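Known limitations

Structure tokens in this collection are predictions and should be treated as such. Users comparing against experimental data should check residue numbering before alignment. To illustrate the layout, the record for Phosphonatase-like hydrolase is reproduced below. The input appears on top and the generated tokens appear beneath it.
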Amino acid sequence: MSNIKLAIFDMAGTTVNENNIVYKTVQKVINDLGYHVSLQEVLKFGAGKEKHQAIKDVLTNCTNSAQIQEEAATAFAAFKPALKAAYNKLEIATFDGMPRFFKKLREHEIHVVLNTGYNTETANKLLAKLDWKIGKEIDLLITADDVTKGRPAPNMIHKAMQHFKVTDAAQVLKAGDSEIDIIEGKNANCGITVGVLTGAQTRDQLEAAKPDYILNTLTELENILFD
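Generated tokens:
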């Protein structure tokens, strides 16, 4: 049995299966500027980040743009309504076994927190589609709107620790489907960092961040936490 008291999970690609709609939308608004960026490039340079920052980083690394700030602002302004329209039509599901896994964690007095590079409106739209409620399925939601610095800064993790009065980062687990999730966890000195293969990035990409574990699905954590 581990000494973990706080489990912090990314949303899209980790706990929520939304078929990369966010990154497909990032790809669309960038390519609407006249570029030809691939989804793989968007996932490589944008996964897990606050979405304005993700757009800037994709433009910087994948295009010859001479006006990064201006074009990023234009694309981000288009991104919000485009994502809202996409989510209104999209069928969203959890990955298999997720509610039962959350329940088991909470029964073992491990707080379940979702943190995300989404803004609060988008994150709450996802929760509503899944009928997940704070205080029932999860204990807390922290979004990019709640902190001054997004991933890979550890601010969202620190905010969750403060909320639950967890002072020892060794008692915190962070899991996500992108390299930046793992770096975020390491920057917060989390006791366990985990990459999962259900979302944005490949095993090779996740291995670059040197997580403690790379799992096929998040629910495989049961074998680690409760063995």
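For this record: The chain has two domains: 6-18+92-225, 21-89. The two ends are 6 Å apart (CA to CA). Please report discrepancies through the issue tracker.
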